[in-house]
Amino acid sequence: MTEMQNTADAARCSGCGIKLQTEAQDKPGYVPAQALEREPVICQRCFRIKNYNESSSVTVLQDEFLRLLGQIGSKDALVIHIVDLFDFHGSVISGLQRFIGNNPVLLAVNKTDLLPKVTNWNKVRNWVQKEAKEIGLKVVDVVLCSAKQNSGFDRLLEMLSHYRGDRDVYVVGATNVGKSTLINRLIRDYSDLDQELTVSRYPGTTLDMVHIPLDDGKSIIDTPGIVYPSRYSELVSPQDLGVIMPDKPLKPAVYQLNEGQTLFFGGFGRFDFIQGERQSFTFFASSSIPLHRTKLERADELYADHAGELLSPPDRSSLEKLPEWTRHDFRIPKGRHSDLFISGLGWIKVNNDSGAVLAVHVPKGVKVLERPSLI
């Protein structure tokens, strides 16, 4: 270990109290090695807040995140929970209520820009409220927003003012849900930060929560993003992350399928229509993922021979780094309109009037579930 690394290991950020490290830029406490010579020494996230009024995403593993959440239960706080509408069931913190006690939760649902423009937003909002309740999350309100289009944030700020009172505000969320964008907007609208502010203004905190002071003496507390390994987006390479995460409105692909047909999501996953009358299925995924239809009886052979080539992305070298596929079976009763949700990859809407027996194949550990149709 170098002398610089030893220095980092012994030091803590004078802004947030996190133990400093020089190895992993996307982990808590990162500081460039050359910055260790400065006084005071601060982590990159505090540096960006101080100098640019900007918060960057930092992640921790699930156990550490839950330990941090447990501290909120003893506070009088408003919790803003940010989730990704495209990956709702993969990004929502299902056990949040156990950790935060009776503190109110304002649910900010980001990435509305990814749904088709003809979407019935009242229906989506009702869907979110119902699903949150099923998960056990008690929310005082739901705000649909888009960080990319800067829409819905005025409404969110109104709700924050309405529900906050004189409380601190804790912002929680998984990785890649747009948490830092919201934090940055809150800093601009609520904080008295300016270019002359010294980082020592931030109270020393446990681990990697950053306290951003508000004009009334309270704080916005920026918590790290939680990593959920059950999301496909946490498994793929950076190059493939740009493929599976859509950056423009989804274009639903409707397929009329007969039983005994299979459809591949590139080399990322597979959908089998095992039994049922001919019917339509609507596929919601990034337009960068090609869909390939074949017969069910040929699907195993096709994947064995062409994964990473005809069935790509990802390429063969990236596929070898992913877990082996596992199969999830579903029997959808007649008349029930469901989505088969694949965390981080998208979903298949079952336009079902006659019932169907279906299967989804994805890498082991990726969350797959049946849910009421979103749209």
From TrEMBL:
Annotated PROSITE patterns: G_CP
Top-level taxon: Bacteria
InterPro entries the record matches: G_CP_dom (IPR030378), GTP-bd (IPR006073), GTP-bd_ribosome_bgen_YqeH (IPR019988), Mito_lipid_metab_GTPase (IPR050896), NOA1/YqeH-like_C (IPR048422)
Occurrences of domain CP-type G (ranges): 62-229
Pfam families the record matches: MMR_HSR1, YqeH-like_C
PANTHER family documented for this protein: GENETIC INTERACTOR OF PROHIBITINS 3, MITOCHONDRIAL
Protein's recorded name: Ribosome biogenesis GTPase YqeH
Native source organism of the sequence: Paenibacillus brevis
Native organism taxonomy: Bacteria, Bacillati, Bacillota, Bacilli, Bacillales
Name of the gene this protein is made from: yqeH
